[in-house]
Every structure is written in C-alpha cells, then in structure tokens.
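Q&A log
Question type: sequence-to-structure
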Amino acid sequence: MGLELDAIDAKILGLLHGDGRMTNTEVARRLGLAEATVRKRVARLLDRGVMQFQAWVDPLKVGYEVYAIIQIQASPAHIESVAESLAKFPEIAFLGVCTGDFDLFAAAVFRSNADLYDFLTRRLSAVSGINRTSTSSMIRLVKREYAFPVPAVPVK
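Response status: OK
Response body:
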C-alpha cells in the first residue's frame, strides 16, 4: 500500500512536477507554508520512495536512433527470473510485468537498427524462459510525460 498523501503533499508534488529544481523556500512561499514544513514533507516523500529527483535525458537527442517496445511472453515459472535478467540490460529503460498476451513489457533504446538486431538475436534470445517476443520501433515520439495528477485524501 502506498503512502497516504494529503492535499499539502499533493500540492508540493504538483509544484515539483513542474520544476524539480524548485527550492523548498520557493515551494513554501507559493503554498503559504513554513520552509521547515516543506523540507520535512519533501524528506518524508523521498524517504518513502514516493518521489525522487533525477535528470531525464531524451535518448533520441543524445545519440540513440531507435526507441523499441519489446513485449515478452515467458513460461509462467520463469517470469520473475526473466524479469531479473532483463532488468540488467542497460538498453532497457522501462520494464514491467503485465497481464494480457505478453508477460513483460520493455522499452529500450539503441544507437542503430544493427544494435537492436544484435540485442534481439544474440542477447535477448539467450535469456532462458522466453517463449516469444514482439518488437516495435517507435518512429515518432508524440508524448513522453512523467507528471500525472497526484491523488490526495482530505486533511482531517
């Protein structure tokens, strides 16, 4: 179960979604709170893993030409071991276990189609427990967003 967020937490997260470099002092000023209150809440949100600060690099602007979506069907007994193996590949930026026709969903970046081909035919095919894959190349990225509405419970 996730951390129960109140309206103040949601507002702090909303401001930091817009500008992750915003200082605690500026967040406090915008919300009419004490800086210490914001600092403690941000620390709690970080400690509990609700949020993290990172620089998001657009792979298509730093030399990666191919953004691939790879769906993987694994033997039921091997789903976790396949996921653990795939998580070690540096090309895979996102990996999730899912329901439906495939058991795992991965997003990966490659410098070229030749690198994608090598990954699929040599490295991915060597992972034990994979039964089938389906790969699609993203030819145009329309939206890549990491911000979404944060639900809050009413403050009591």
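Response note: The chain has two domains: 7-47, 59-138.
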